[in-house]
Automatic annotation (TrEMBL):
InterPro entries: FAD/NAD-bd_sf, HdrA-like. It comes from Solidesulfovibrio fructosivorans JJ]. This is Fumarate reductase/succinate dehydrogenase flavoprotein domain protein. GO terms for molecular function: 4 iron, 4 sulfur cluster binding; metal ion binding; oxidoreductase activity. It comes from the Bacteria. It holds the Pfam family FAD_oxidored. Keywords: 4Fe-4S, Iron, Iron-sulfur, Metal-binding, Oxidoreductase.
Length: 413
């Protein structure tokens, strides 16, 4: 006997979209998300395409749809560890880590303030600190704190033991789900900047990644939306964007990550809105602004203080005295090589599939970069950036397509 239920692995924008499409036509859907909150990479952005609205704008609507649909069940801090069976009849084992905080939207900010130890925030890409008891953003879903017990001091554990909704005895658990098909919407991760040794290797303080800049610009970020230099907190008056940082490079990511040029143009607008006197330079190989984004690019580049230069950045160095960043660039048009000084440099690092380098619990083909390339005959469908680099709108379209295929499979079994 098979199952009409559908499993969605990944609770980012693609995963949520796929889950809701299936749930709203009557299928029981399970979302399995390894992080404590749903929302994925979109939750970390300041604004996203195509509407350039904050992530809360789109995500809160999706979260409300999940809350209102009894067909959707989600598990956070959860990972699929085993899959057995065949298309239409899968048995899936899910391991769930303890959250240490009981259900409910209780405000634990006063308890957080009593904790002594600060830890580096992965959500802020190392730009900020937080306590071991935290909620990533105010609109997080579930709107429920999470505790990293292993990062607590003995004193902090004593403080937490007195909090009503904190359960320090919470334990890992395992559940088994019966599903007919599986959608992999595992999303993407920024390429590891420390591998780009010629571009600062993550060691130059005022050389940040594009995702770090999103967090600096975000009101919920480590600087409450102020774009400042990490070294000294000063507002940068000159900013450079280095395109294809690790992309279109046989030694790193051998493909174009599709959205990086658009992201840098968007971020150039962030800088110009914040600092009317700032000077922005974008160094690119090819400016790729697909489809209707071409008009957006033209509008941004019409700003006489934003300059796009076709040229390859060969080296990045730091002026130890000022913290400024020196870029060695060869202009592809003039052929002239020059050193250029900026107060802040942003590396447009590429999109790498989150599952790159991991062994999946299902037998589906992946390419050399880690993108899922098949599996549909087994009732396993890839959505969003698990299949190819995409923007949010196209990720949602991809997720709808994957959901339709998953529905067709379980109904036509």
């Amino acid at each position: 006997m098979g199952s009409n239920a559908i499993l969605v692995v990944g609770g980012g924008f693609s995963g949520i979209t796929a889950a809701l499409e299936a749930a709203e036509v009557g299928h029981e859907v399970y979302i399995v998300e390894k992080n404590p909150f749903l929302g994925g990479r979109v939750m970390q952005l300041n604004k996203y395409f195509p509407k350039l609205c904050p992530p809360s704008c789109g995500l809160e609507i999706q979260f409300q749809r999940i809350k209102n649909n009894k067909n959707v069940k989600f598990f956070t801090l959860a990972e699929v560890t085993k899959v057995s069976g065949t298309a239409g009849d899968y048995e899936v084992t899910v391991s769930i880590k303890p959250r240490y905080v009981e259900p409910g939207s209780v405000d634990l900010s006063e308890t957080v303030a009593k904790l002594s130890k600060d830890v580096k925030s992965d959500f802020e890409f190392g730009l900020g600190q937080r306590k071991a008891l935290y909620m990533d953003v105010p609109f997080a879903f579930p709107n429920r704190y999470v505790l990293e017990k292993e990062r607590c001091t003995k004193e902090d554990l004593e403080t937490l033991s007195g909090a009503d909704v904190v359960n320090l005895d919470d334990a890992p658990k395992e559940i088994v789900l019966k599903v007919g098909s599986i959608v992999y919407a595992t999303g993407w991760k920024p390429y590891d900047v420390t591998r780009l040794t010629n571009l600062g290797a993550g060691e130059i303080a005022n050389c940040v990644t594009n995702m770090q800049l999103e967090r600096l610009a975000a009101p919920s970020g480590p600087t409450h939306g102020k774009i400042v230099r990490p070294s000294d907190g000063k507002a940068p008056r000159s900013v450079a964007f280095v395109q294809c940082a690790g992309s279109r490079d046989e030694n790193h990511l051998n493909y174009c990550s599709y959205i990086c040029c658009m992201a840098s143009l968007k971020q150039a607008a962030y800088v110009r809105e914040a600092f009317p006197d700032a000077r922005v330079t974008i160094y690119y190989i090819d400016l790729r602004t697909p489809g209707r984004y071409d008009n957006f690019a033209k509008r941004i580049l019409a700003d006489d203080r934003i300059n796009a230069v076709k040229g390859k950045v060969a080296a990045v160095a730091e002026d130890a005295g000022t913290g400024d960043v020196i870029l060695t660039v060869e202009d592809a048009v003039s052929g002239i090589k020059s050193d250029n000084r900026f107060e802040l440099v942003v590396l447009a690092t590429g999109m790498q599939p989150s599952i790159a380098g991991e062994r999946l619990p299902v037998d589906v083909p992946v390419d050399e970069m880690g993108f899922i390339m098949g599996g549909e005959e087994k009732g396993i469908f890839a959505a969003g950036c698990a299949a190819t680099p995409l923007d949010v709108m196209k990720s949602a379209q991809s997720a709808t397509g994957a959901a339709m295929k998953a529905i067709a499979l379980v109904r036509g079994r």
